[in-house]
Structure formats: structure tokens, C-alpha cells
Specification:
CATH topology of the largest domain: Nucleotidyltransferase, domain 5
Distance between the termini: 41 Å
Radius of gyration: 25 Å
Number of strands: 25
Strand content: 25-35%
Structural class: alpha+beta
Number of domains: 3
Number of helices: 15
Length: 568
């Protein structure tokens, strides 16, 4: 059994493992180390990754699902957990075929600022995908491991993590093998996707079109064109792409100057958050040994320039920012698997946890940036004579009133002795585990009567739905792991053959003969059920298509083929 690290990202995901003592990404999507977190729900089946982008259609495509974890949002009848589970399942099964071994457990990363509900939802998604979660680890902490800070001299470091959908900034102290997060802050709705939308709005406004006029499908396709513009800019001074709206062709443009002006708006928001984290930690930038930059957005020169200029410290960027988080998760999975004790990770609670008291105030029990795991107790009593029960409302947030905080759970301790007001002694225990998940217990001291609750999101999957999904996913998983991988391989091979058969005219001439040859060999291995050859020829086709698929996608985004009728 192999234990892996997974960065389940907003725009892209990465799965990694340890090989010869070093973290290595597993290329599971047409030979690429990153897999777009896009899922298509088609009549023919579920498609994930670059092919899902290629075949993207508003009527069956889902992206940015990470932003909705822990909510009751539905996508074609599926919860965010279920969509995320499809991404995780694709990563798991594809990696199993590539490495020819089963994968049952993983360290999965989450933004440091993820709420309790979002963390529980992430664990649920992993369970649905048939993965045991060894631990949820905060993305900045994982990045620090990937940069090898656990092997460096003692000191204080910061992690600037700007991805497609979220931003995190954390300050960590390394002290004789103890990795402690001093403070963390972030925004779960701040990332490259927002920059793409601003680029879209900028271009629409030049034609007198307000983005509110676009439906979800038109907006989705527009953001793809904006993203393509951003990526095409590179070292050029200007880039152009076409966008179809209401059957009319519009030329979108992006210059280096406009790009910098738009990006600066979001950069300023990240730097404001970072400044607050420094205040929370009680230190100044001059106290740190360096800042690690992580996340696909930090590949942009303006990001690194701004971070370096604002804090005037060394910027550490020697590890691929898109893969660093998954690599750190793989390192930690390896340390758990082999019980290595050279590094101890101490994360923190991202948001304050408390109980609503009489009048609607919040009694703050565990304050944000408290190191975890943590156990805190608080004593309460009745406020009426003869009262035989107490209702508890668990909330999360920094506001003094419960109505302004996020409600996590409500439960009641009943059958306590009927005494005069103020006589009963009820102890409430808040416990946050290493995954950042909260459990609450209330007990009356004289009788021992107790009630407890594991705080889970009040929305999303019901318990019945969860049980049914888990039972279905667990059937024969242990005994038939290899057979399941073979079935997945056959289905993926047949789907790949059907897909490229229909797209043969799109394949560049210099690659067409080689693709056709490998397809014939793949068909033959399917007929013979030769799984070793099947996996090899499938990989060969992925390697070849990986050389031109991104170019086809980019080219399609720049011409009238983006028309929704042709994508359908």
C-alpha cells in the first residue's frame, strides 16, 4: 500500500509520492503533473482534467468547486464533496495505474484559513473516493516542508500562497525539529480566478457590456478566454483572443500595463492580509529568514516583485510553486508511514471558536492562532430555578455577537438535576484535533450526564446519503483493488479511443500517424485483455497528445470554435 500527498486545488490538483527519499509528482493527466480541477458529467461518463476543459460545456461542466466546500450548493444534483471526490478518485485510480500499486491513504492539504465545515467536507470527499485521510495539513505548512525548512537552521519563515481560488499567508517558526505556525490569515475567495474575471470585465466594458448580462455558461467561457489571454501575455507586451457572445465575435485584448494595474488591486489585498498576520505573530518582516512563494499565481513576475519590495526580505522560489504543496504532503505522509520523528508539525486554529451565551454574546473558548491539537474547558450553569436542560450553540468567528459569526452546531444537555439557578455545574469541553476538526462535549459534574457532538457542516450530504455512498464505495475495495484498477483502465482506454477517433482531424499532421499506430496497439491489447500493454499504450497516447493538446485548447479559445453549440 502506497501513501501519497494530494493538493486538492481550486483550479488544479497534484498527487505526489516519495521515491528514493525525494518527493515526486505523478503525471496522471496526459503526461502532466498538474490536473485541472474540472469535471464534466456527460451521458457517456465522468471526465476529469484537461480533456474536461477541452470538452467543457456549461450544461455539464463543474469547476472552482473548492470554493463551495462545506456549503449546500449543488452541481447537476451533486454536492461539492461528491464533485471533489470525483477529482480525488481520478487522481487515485490514474496514479494506481501509473505506479501499478494500490493507494489507500493520503495526506491532503487544505487552505490554512479553511473553516471547520470545509475541513470536514474535504475528509468526506476523500472517504467517498476510497481514501483514508492520514491527516489534513495546512497548505503553507506543506509548502514549508517541500522547501526543506525542516532540514535547515532554526528560524522564522513566512509562506505566501496565492493559488487559483484561495490566498493564505502564514508565519512559521522552526525550533529544533518543531514546526510551529505562529499566525495565519487568508481569504478563501481571493486568487487567480478573480484576476481572470477582472480581465473579462475590462474587455466586456470596452464593448459596453456589463458582466451581469452574462449567464453562468457565458461567464465561464469568458473567464477561460481571459485566462488564456493572461497566460499568452508572457513576455509579450500585448495579447489578443476572440470571444463569442450572443453569436457575435469580440476581440479581447490585454496589455502588460493593464495586466499589472488589474493584478495590483488583488496584490494589495494579499499584502494587507500579510501585514495583519505579522501583527498577530508579534514580529516584523526583518525578523524572518525568508518568504516562500507558493501557488500558480506566484509564477507571475509582478507577484514576486511586489512581495520582495513590500517586505524587503529574501524570496524563496526554487521549488515549482504549483507542485510544492503536494510535495510537502507527500513528505509528511512518508513520515507518518515510517513513524519518523525528526519533525513535529504544530498548526493553529484559523478562526476563534466559542459558545453563544445569554443575550447573544460569544464566550470565546479557543482563540484563533492557538496551536493544535488543543483541549479547552469552560464551566457554565443554569439561569432559572428548576432548569433541567441547557442548550448550546457553537459558533466560529471573530465578532462579539453570535449572530455575526458562523453557526457550527446546536445541541442540548438534558436531564440535569433541578436546582436553584446557578447551582448546577456543567463543563463544556472543546477539542480540536491535528486535522483542525472540532468536537464538543458537555457534562454535568454531579451526575456525570453528558452530551457530545462532532462539529460537521449543517449543509451538504445527509448522514443517510453519506452512509449509502460509503457503502457503495467500500464494496470489495480491499480484495478487488487490482481488479478495480483494471476495470478503470479498460474504461479509460475505450473512452480515449472513442475520443481521439472522433477528433482525428484535429490532430496535427506530424503526430497523426503515431497516434493512429498507438491506438491500433491499444485496441489489440483491449481485445487480449493484456493490462500491462494496455497501460503502456494508453500512456504513450497521453504522452503524444500532451505535446499538442494544450495548443489545440489555446487555439480553440482564440477562434469561433468556442461557440457553445459546437462545444455541446
Amino acid at each position: 500500500m502506497l501513501m501519497v500527498g494530494i493538493d486538492l486545488g481550486t483550479t488544479a490538483s497534484v498527487i505526489a509520492f516519495m521515491q528514493h527519499g525525494m518527493p515526486r509528482s505523478i503525471a496522471v493527466d496526459v503526461g502532466k503533473n498538474t490536473t485541472p480541477s474540472v469535471v464534466n458529467y456527460e451521458d457517456s461518463g465522468i471526465v476529469v482534467g484537461r480533456e474536461a476543459i477541452y470538452r467543457m460545456n456549461p450544461s455539464h461542466s463543474v469547476f472552482d468547486v473548492k470554493r463551495f466546500m462545506g456549503t449546500n450548493r449543488k452541481f447537476f444534483g451533486r454536492s461539492p464533496e461528491e464533485v471533489s471526490a470525483d477529482i480525488l478518485s481520478y487522481l487515485k485510480k490514474s496514479a494506481e495505474i501509473t505506479l501499478r500499486t494500490s493507494i489507500d491513504a493520503a495526506v491532503i492539504t487544505v487552505p490554512a484559513h479553511f473553516s471547520d465545515a470545509q475541513r470536514v467536507a474535504t475528509k468526506r470527499a476523500a472517504s467517498i473516493a476510497g481514501l483514508k485521510v492520514l491527516r489534513l495539513i495546512n497548505e503553507p505548512t506543506a509548502a514549508a516542508l517541500a522547501f526543506g525548512l525542516d532540514k535547515k537552521a532554526n528560524g522564522i519563515y513566512a509562506v505566501y500562497d496565492l493559488g487559483g481560488g484561495t490566498f493564505d499567508f502564514s508565519i512559521l517558526r522552526l525550533d529544533n525539529g518543531i514546526f510551529q505556525v505562529l499566525a495565519t490569515g487568508g481569504d478563501n475567495y481571493l486568487g487567480g480566478n478573480d484576476l481572470d474575471e477582472s480581465i473579462l470585465m475590462y474587455n466586456l466594458s470596452s464593448y459596453g457590456i456589463d458582466i451581469s448580462q452574462l449567464n453562468d455558461g457565458e461567464k465561464m467561457l469568458g473567464r477561460l478566454v481571459a485566462k488564456s489571454l493572461k497566460e499568452s501575455l508572457g513576455n509579450q507586451k500585448e495579447a489578443k483572443k476572440n470571444y463569442i457572445y450572443k453569436n457575435q465575435n469580440y476581440e479581447f485584448m490585454l496589455s502588460d500595463v493593464v495586466m499589472r494595474n488589474i493584478a495590483q488591486i488583488y496584490l494589495n489585498r494579499t499584502l494587507k492580509i500579510a501585514d495583519q498576520v505579522f501583527l498577530d505573530a508579534g514580529i516584523i518582516p526583518e525578523n524572518i529568514a525568508g518568504i516562500i512563494t507558493v501557488g500558480g499565481m506566484t509564477k507571475m513576475p509582478i507577484i514576486k516583485e511586489s512581495v520582495r519590495h513590500h517586505f524587503r526580505v529574501n524570496v524563496m522560489d526554487e521549488v515549482n510553486p504549483e507542485e510544492a504543496v503536494a510535495h510537502g504532503a507527500a513528505i509528511h505522509a512518508d513520515s507518518i508511514a515510517f513513524k519518523k520523528k525528526n519533525t513535529l508539525l504544530i498548526d493553529v486554529v484559523p478562526l476563534t471558536l466559542g459558545i453563544e451565551t445569554l443575550g447573544g454574546n460569544v464566550d470565546k473558548i479557543i482563540h484563533r492562532n492557538t496551536a493544535i491539537p488543543i483541549l479547552q474547558r469552560r464551566e457554565y450553569t443554569t439561569h432559572k430555578n428548576g432548569q433541567d436542560g441547557i442548550k448550546f450553540h457553537v459558533v466560529q468567528g471573530e465578532r462579539p455577537l453570535a449572530k455575526d459569526c458562523r453557526s457550527l452546531a446546536k445541541f442540548e444537555l438534558t436531564n440535569i438535576p433541578k436546582m436553584s439557578a446557578g447551582a448546577p455545574r456543567v463543563v463544556v469541553e472543546f477539542s480540536v484535533d491535528v486535522n483542525g476538526i472540532l468536537s464538543v462535549k458537555a457534562s454535568e459534574k454531579t451526575t456525570g450526564i453528558a452530551q457530545s457532538v462532532l462539529v460537521e457542516p449543517s449543509s451538504g450530504l445527509s448522514d443517510e446519503d453519506m452512509v449509502a455512498i460509503l457503502e457503495n464505495a467500500a464494496k470489495n475495495r480491499e480484495s478487488d483493488a487490482l481488479e478495480a484498477a483494471h476495470v478503470f483502465l479498460k474504461v479509460e482506454s475505450e473512452r480515449m479511443l472513442n475520443f481521439w477517433e472522433s477528433q482525428m482531424n484535429e490532430i496535427p499532421q506530424e503526430h497523426k500517424k503515431l497516434v493512429r499506430s498507438e491506438m491500433d496497439l491499444l485496441k489489440n491489447s483491449l481485445e487480449l485483455e493484456d493490462f500491462h500493454q494496455m497501460a503502456q499504450h494508453k500512456k504513450n497516447i497521453e504522452d503524444i497528445s500532451g505535446q499538442f493538446l494544450d495548443e489545440i485548447i489555446s487555439e480553440r479559445l482564440s477562434r469561433k470554435v468556442i461557440n457553445k453549440r459546437e462545444l455541446a
